[in-house]
Every structure is written in structure tokens, then in C-alpha cells.
Write a structure and sequence with these properties.
Layout lengths: L2 H11 L5 E3 L5 E3 L2 H10 L7 H17 L5 E5 L4 E15 L5 E13 L5 E8 L4 E9 L6 H5 L4 E6 L15 H13 L4 E4 L3 E2 L15 E5 L14 H10 L15 H21 L4 H12 L2 H16 L8 H4 L3 H10 L1 H28 L4 E6 L8 H5 L8 E5 L9 E5 L4 H6 L3 H11 L4 E4 L7 E6 L6 E4 L2 H15 L2 E4 L9 H7 L4 E4 L20 E4 L8 H6 L1 H8 L5 H23 L9 H10 L5 E5 H4 L26 H4 L4 H11 L10
Parallel strand pairs: 3-7, 8-9, 8-21, 9-12, 12-15, 15-18, 19-20, 20-21
Antiparallel strand pairs: 1-2, 4-5, 4-6, 6-7, 10-11, 13-14, 13-16, 16-17
Helix pairs in contact: 1-2, 1-3, 5-12, 6-7, 9-12, 15-16, 19-20, 20-21, 21-24
């Protein structure tokens, strides 16, 4: 075969998809330059044609020499018969505990005993060689809502945590605000409270505001720590400490947008003062509890807090650090640890406090009657220069970024500047990096939404060298098994955000595994382009009108997003006029079909839409706090950074004022009439 054919064959073997169809029906073919860039990103070095042939030959030789599968996915608590092309001793150990759980003799076949859900390694040793196989032992499906709650239909609220205001919080909504909002919603008969990702942004990442551009997804954003809820002190002691640090309340000015830098400066000063106070309280039981947690913390927390301490000296992007620290030279890291022990301890304390407060918010919400508690969001990836990509360099795809081709969310396409996990490398480490992220996200959540769940099937990689982007397949079955394993352990319901260019059959595949779909009414159109009636919504979905990436209900009605697209130069005058015409038809159709869901005349469109969603077959219905408060502008416009005040808008109503706002009892009554409330509360 010629060189291009060999390259194409190698690319196919490594999961690079030869072509894809864009939203306008045009085919895009992966060029040889793109194929080489994506191969290198996945750890396959192909600098010349000879190397392509060498790698192909090596793959063939390795596969033909194997006697047991490299990886096996089996159902938990069931026996499994495995044919092997050898005889010898076998043993199985659990990767979590490293304990041997079963062993025996292989004589052409191994009877694997029933195993609890988890990741295991099967090792078979014969006279001439030893081979290992990764066992992904997973339940049949992720937890279903009825199994977890005993009820089939629920409703909840989605809110931007950063935008929540209260009389006591300082600039950004915090974990105490989250707990209070959860308790309020429980009184309304809701089942869950959804928020934006609360992954760690980074102590030194002063310019980053998007919760979808985290530094590390297994750690928490310490900017949401409630300063007045640090354990071990009475309120007056904390108040005095914050007064000493000159930490005021940034919510006092009721600004419509958040001044992140000012908020962070004040909040960070408060955290430093409180840490010093905490460390000085030698008789505190909480100090002993913190010391105990430090002694038992895992390597991932150690690495993350080391990154945070280094970033204070060399900046938040590790790619610009001194080379020995960037490449994690052991001697250089140890020397730095020795010199920065106090700062490392400070960052460990921050994570301990944040974890405790998030757990408290989840627990208090559930105790108040919010049956599913918190609904947390898992971001697609971490920043390329952030902590996760430094800690897990061994599994990060090099010189590419995750993104998306043009679609209805962003007609220009998107480059998210997020690090991609390389499938080949991830498989080699038995998925440990991703397992940590999933486990951390599900720890204090009754529901987890996986943003851009299409990424577990294929991921759009954009090379740094200017080559066009292309899709690379992911180990779908293995990643689904991993998600099922962690969801079962946490008893967490899983929602897969499945918007965008969806391959045929994908939704059916993940729903058969227990995942709930994500049905956004303003995008849910039939083959003719007409909006579907909510009564046609599937049962196994979370249904909503919009998301943080879409116009609010008010904004949709007047075409606010279209106006922004025109102002940004994405569409011209004629395209804007056409889009507004289409939108007017959409609004008219919504008005007509939602009127069928109401017996009263002259019902406002927002109430009609929410009633139609409430009466739909969907297992979960989510209402945006933006729409409860009749906000006009969206939280985010995909594809923009500074052009629009993304992730910066505060809610016009504080938590203290929320119960008196007419929007909340209206939603409560709508959900009560539809039978979705967990209590009989009405206002």
C-alpha cells in the first residue's frame, strides 16, 4: 500500500474518523496533516512514512501475540466464562485496593467469579510469559430515578451559583447560599437543585471566569467557600477576623454584573486570615479533623495542592514554568515541597473546607425534602495549562484542543482550549484519571449532568499546527462502564447532555445503559424544522426550555440572541431578518401548542410553556432561575469571551427576596398541578 493508504489505515486503527458531515450537510474529510497531528496527540509518533508502516506492523504483531483480551467488560455479580489461548495460573486484583480477589488455574478457559462493580486486573502467567487484561465490571445500567426516589416524575431548578446574591455572601454565590436555596426549593416540592460546574478554577487564575474552563475537575472552586461558615469558630470570631482583614460585602452595591477580580481579592484575603486563625486554634477539634484528613489524603490532592503552590511562584499556566517543574522532575518537586510546605497545607485546607461545605449543602437540601439533592455539572475538560493537565500529563493528548464544529449553538464553531484525554493513554492507565474526576463529581450529588456527553463516543480535536479539526473515537463501551460503576457506588442519576451533531443511534445506546437524555424545548424540532410539542417528549429525559448557553425565555421571545449574533458580526442584516422571521414562527407555534396545556385563557407564555413541560412525559423537568425571575439576557453566548458578559450576571433578586417573588409560587403551583411535587405545599 502507498503512504497515504497506510496513514489512513493507521488513523482508522487509532480511532480517527475519516470524515464527518456538518450541520449544513457538507462532508469534511480528515486531511493527512490532520491525521498525523491527531496520531501524535494520541501518543503515536509518525514523523515520516517509514514510521507509519513500522507502527502498523507493531500493532499487528502485538495483537496476534495476545492470548487474552487486552480489556474485558462484564456485568457485575455474574459469572463469566473466558476462553484463553494458554494454560497457567491466573489471579484477579482490584485496582482500588490492590487486593487479590480470586485466583486459579487456566486450562484454555477461566471461570471468572461474580465480582462487585469496579475495575480489576486479570493476570495470567504461563511458563513463557505473563499477560494482563483490564476488567471493567459494571452494573447493567446507571441508577434510575424511580429506583433512587420511589417516584417516576420530578422537577427542579437550575441556577448559576456565582450569580446568587444574599445579604451575607460576598460577591459570588457561595456554598451556604446553595444550601439555603436547596432548603427553599424543598419547601416548594422540588426534587433537585442544579448548578454550573464547581470544579477548581485555580488560586492564581484571576482572569478565568467560565465554570466550564476549570483547572481541575476533581477539585472544588474555593471561591464558593462561605467565609462565615468556617468550622471551629463562632460567628463573632469570624466577623472580627474578616473586619481585621478588611473583608466587606461586595453584594452591597447590587451591581448587575460581577467584578470577579475585586471579589476574588477580598475573598482570598478573608481565606488567608481565617486559615491563620484556624491554625492558631490549637485546641480545636476541627484542627485535629483537618490534620487527620491530610494524613489520609490521596496522591491526587497532594499533586493538585503542589500545583497551586507552584502557581503562586510561576503563574497559573504550567506550560510557562521552569522546565524541571513543568515536566515534574522528582528532585525539583521535592525541593519545592520542602520550601512551600505551609502554602501546600493552606491549599489542602481550602479543599477540605470546600468539600465540607458542599457536602453540607447536599445533606441539608436532602434533609429538608429535596429528594435528589444537588444536581452537579461535569465539564467537558480542563484548561490546557491548568492543574489537571499538569497532574495527569501522562494521559493528556498533546498539541490539540477540544472543540466543536459549527452547529446551532455557535455558527462559527468553537475551540474551547480544553485538554483532551488521549484514548490510547487513558486505556493504558486503566482509566484512573477519569475515574477520579467522576468519583469526585458524584460524591455530593444526587444527579450529575455530563456536559457534551457525545465526547464519550467521539471528540472533536483541533490541532495547534493549524490543521483542520477532526473527530477521534473514544472507547465508548469502556467509558460507559466506568460511569455506571461510579454512579452505582454514589447512587447518582446520570444525565447525558446530547445536543449538537449526534451520530445515528447514539441516544438509544446511552439510554439503554440508564443515561437520561437532555431535551431542550427551543432546540427540539421535527424533520420540517417545526418545534415539537412537549407532550411528545421522551420519558427518559430531563426536559427544559433552555440552558446557560441559550437565550432565556424572555430573550428567546424577542430574539435577543439573534441581535447579539448580528452585533458580533456573525450574521448580516438579511440573515438577521430571516432569523427573526423564523423565531416569530417558533414563538407563535409555542403559543399555540402550549395553550392546549392550559384551561385558563390569557395565560402568559412563560407559564404556558412551564405548564406544558410539567405535563410532559419527561422524568425530570428543570426550570431556569433566570426564567423564574424573568431575566432577559443569557448567562453565556457560546463562541464569545469578552464580547458578551458571560458568566458574570447576578440575579436581580436575592435569596432573602426569592420567597416573596411571584415567580417561585407560580412555578410551584404549576408543578403541583402536574403531580411533580414531592410535598403538598402550595402558596
Amino acid at each position: 500500500m502507498n503512504s497515504d493508504q497506510a496513514l489512513g489505515q493507521l488513523a482508522e486503527r487509532c480511532g480517527i474518523i475519516a470524515s464527518y458531515w456538518n450541520i449544513e450537510g457538507q462532508e469534511h474529510i480528515a486531511s493527512p496533516e490532520t491525521q498525523r497531528a491527531l496520531l501524535r496527540a494520541n501518543g503515536v509518533m509518525v514523523d515520516n512514512d517509514a514510521m507509519v508502516h513500522e507502527v502498523l506492523a507493531h500493532i499487528d504483531a502485538t495483537n496476534s501475540a495476545r492470548r487474552i483480551p487486552e480489556e474485558l467488560i462484564i456485568q457485575s455479580n455474574l459469572k463469566h466464562e473466558l476462553s484463553v489461548d494458554c494454560s497457567g495460573h491466573w489471579r484477579i486484583h482490584c485496582t482500588d485496593t490492590n487486593k487479590i480477589v480470586a485466583e486459579g488455574q487456566a486450562r484454555g478457559q477461566i471461570t471468572l467469579p461474580p465480582l462487585q462493580s469496579g475495575i480489576y486486573e486479570l493476570m495470567v502467567t504461563s511458563q513463557d510469559k505473563s499477560e494482563s487484561s483490564t476488567l471493567l465490571v459494571a452494573p447493567e445500567r446507571t441508577p434510575m430515578i424511580a429506583d433512587v426516589t420511589g417516584r417516576a416524575q420530578h422537577w427542579g431548578l437550575n441556577a448559576a451559583l456565582y450569580g446568587i446574591r444574599s445579604e451575607r455572601s460576598r460577591g459570588l454565590g457561595d456554598f451556604e447560599d446553595l444550601a439555603l436555596l436547596g432548603e427553599i426549593l424543598a419547601e416548594c416540592g422540588a426534587s433537585f437543585l442544579g448548578i454550573n460546574p464547581v470544579h477548581a478554577i485555580g488560586w492564581m487564575a484571576n482572569e478565568v471566569v467560565s465554570p466550564y474552563s476549570p483547572s481541575h475537575r476533581a477539585m472544588l472552586n474555593t471561591s464558593h467557600i462561605a467565609l462565615d461558615r468556617i468550622p471551629g469558630f463562632d460567628p463573632s470570631t469570624i466577623a472580627q477576623a474578616l473586619q481585621t482583614a478588611d473583608v466587606g460585602n461586595q453584594n452591597a452595591d447590587r451591581s448587575p454584573t460581577i467584578d470577579y477580580q475585586a471579589c476574588k481579592r477580598i475573598h482570598d484575603e478573608g481565606l488567608i486570615e481565617l486559615f491563620n486563625l484556624f491554625k492558631g486554634n490549637l485546641n480545636s477539634g476541627e484542627l485535629a479533623a483537618f490534620d487527620q484528613s491530610r494524613s489520609t489524603c490521596d496522591d491526587s490532592l497532594d499533586e493538585f495542592t503542589l500545583y497551586e503552590a507552584i502557581s503562586e511562584c510561576h503563574g497559573e499556566d504550567w506550560r510557562h514554568w521552569p522546565s524541571d517543574l513543568a515536566r515534574k522532575d522528582p528532585l525539583a518537586l521535592q525541593n519545592f515541597k520542602d520550601s512551600a510546605a505551609e502554602r501546600i497545607e493552606f491549599h489542602q485546607w481550602l479543599q477540605w473546607i470546600a468539600q465540607g461545605q458542599l457536602k453540607d449543602a447536599h445533606t441539608r437540601s436532602k434533609c429538608a425534602g429535596l429528594s435528589m439533592g444537588l444536581y452537579l455539572d461535569l465539564a467537558v475538560g480542563s484548561r490546557r495549562g491548568g492543574a489537571e493537565s499538569w497532574c495527569d500529563q501522562h494521559v493528556i493528548a498533546q498539541d490539540v484542543s477540544i472543540g466543536a464544529p459549527p452547529d446551532h449553538l455557535s455558527p462559527e464553531g468553537q475551540n474551547w482550549q480544553l485538554a483532551a484525554l488521549a484514548p490510547h493513554k487513558l486505556k493504558a492507565e486503566k482509566y484512573a484519571s477519569l475515574q477520579r474526576v467522576l468519583r469526585a463529581t458524584m460524591r455530593h450529588a444526587g444527579v450529575v449532568r455530563i456536559d457534551h456527553v457525545l465526547g464519550i463516543n467521539r471528540s472533536f480535536w483541533i490541532p495547534d499546527d493549524g490543521s483542520p479539526g477532526a473527530y477521534i473515537t473514544q472507547p465508548f463501551d469502556s467509558l460507559v462502564a466506568l460511569i455506571k460503576i461510579e454512579a452505582e457506588k454514589a447512587r447518582t442519576v446520570v444525565i447525558g447532555e446530547d445536543l449538537g451533531l449526534v451520530p445515528g443511534g447514539f441516544r438509544e445506546r446511552i439510554r439503554s445503559q440508564g443515561f437520561y437524555g437532555y431535551s431542550v424545548l427551543q432546540f427540539d424540532k421535527d424533520e420540517s424544522g417545526a418545534l415539537r410539542d412537549p407532550s411528545e417528549t421522551d420519558q427518559q429525559v430531563l426536559a427544559c426550555f433552555g440552558t446557560h448557553d441559550t437565550p432565556t425565555l424572555q430573550g428567546f421571545s424577542v430574539g435577543r440572541d439573534i441581535d447579539w449574533w448580528k452585533n458580533l458580526g456573525w450574521i448580516d442584516e438579511d440573515m438577521s431578518a430571516h432569523a427573526h422571521s423564523v423565531r416569530s414562527k417558533d414563538v407563535a407555534r409555542l403559543t399555540a401548542m402550549t395553550s392546549n396545556s392550559n384551561t385558563e385563557d390569557n395565560v402568559p407564555l412563560s407559564a404556558a410553556i412551564h405548564s406544558a413541560l410539567a405535563q410532559s412525559p419527561a422524568a425530570m423537568v428543570s426550570i431556569q432561575l433566570d426564567d423564574v425571575l424573568c431575566q432577559l439576557d443569557a448567562q453565556n453566548i457560546p463562541g464569545t469571551i469578552l464580547e458578551h458578559p458571560n458568566w458574570s450576571r447576578q440575579y436581580t433578586t436575592s435569596i432573602e427576596e426569592l420567597t416573596a417573588h411571584p415567580g417561585l409560587p407560580e412555578i410551584t403551583n404549576i408543578m403541583q398541578r402536574a403531580g411533580r411535587c414531592t410535598t403538598n405545599s402550595t402558596d
